[in-house]
Amino acid sequence: xxxxxxxxRPSTKGWLLGTLAGWGTLLLGLAGIVITLxxxxxxxxxxxxxxxxxxLWRWLENMGSKYEITEERLIIRxxxxxxxxxxxxxxxxxDIRIDFSLINQLAGIGRITIGSSDETTRSGDxxxxxxxxxxxRRETLRRLVDAARQKRRVREIDMHEDV
Length: 163
Prior knowledge:
alpha+beta
């Protein structure tokens, strides 16, 4: 197996600062602290505890997801207790799209969506969300996809029905 050129995980910090759900979680935790400090009772600290549990859950999800890019494949490792490893052959990739909202751009994260003819993506496109340096990683993938296709002399032919 060839050596990884890039290894990355979704960013918990990026999720917190780059999504509305992350900001909502931060505000929930802050609200619990402020309301408690204002003297409305300690039970409002439960809001902070809920926010911390949400952040912990997201962190565990992110730690259980790891992506490796090699010259020939994208390797997807998921799970902490029960692990799964999927591989997408780069020569089978048909499309790489990057999406980011204004808040994502401010946090420096993005979402890469990969469409391919590989079995891994048969049920739908592969979505890698909350990634640092998403534009740079998309360009790396695009360059490696082109190189893998040239190496295998693969050409793509799309068949469309006329409606």
